[in-house]
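Just wondering, does anyone understand what follows?

——
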Amino acid sequence: MRKPPPPFTSRQTRREAVAALAYLPVHIVLLPLLMSALLFRLFPRLSDGDFNLLYYGIGAVYMLLFQLRFLRREFDTLCDRPVNCLAEVLSGYGLMLGLNLLINGLLSLFPADNPNNAAVIGMADTQLGTVSAMAVFLAPIVEELMFRAGIFGLLRRRSRFWAYAASMLLFSLYHVWSFALLDPRQLIYVVQYFPASYVLCRCYERSDTVWGSIFLHMLINGISLFLISSLGEYLCLLL
């Protein structure tokens, strides 16, 4: 007999859902275009690390303004079941490592590197502190509130399948679409983000609080940056 899916009660209000989804096109397209047009003209020596820190900083401020009550409600769920949340974070990370071995084995057939990972590694080489603040603290909050609480949470009420499919696909495309505009062959690297996308959705669903996926996202990025700085290696970065 098939095991039923775990109960999922995490809910945004209509206003919170609209705010999360409305920020998607702003974050992905409008804000980077506007910032590129203004900041690099006013500050031609602005580094990529500082640009991205400001970019995610703006997103974090927006999310705190419109999602603070949602985060507060979700924190209550976290406090009710902290051990369950920790277990889902750790098991999710282990599952991601296993899935990444399969995906990266297939991608080893392609000679080029993931352009997003290469860009992050380049920034981390010269601005590790800036990149760490962006990757470990800001990006997980912004991205989990958009892709998990916003997309997955909204669709999960209607279809579990489409909640996973839409959140995973959009989250993965988000990381490579700008590179694919210049070289469509870069779309192959969408699949490299499927494992992390899946376990983040799974963690959100099974922990029943967006804090679960936020903490897992922080863990993945934190360990990835640690490996970059100490070993010169990396796992699947999610920036």
The chain has eight helices and no strands. The chain has one domain: 14-231.
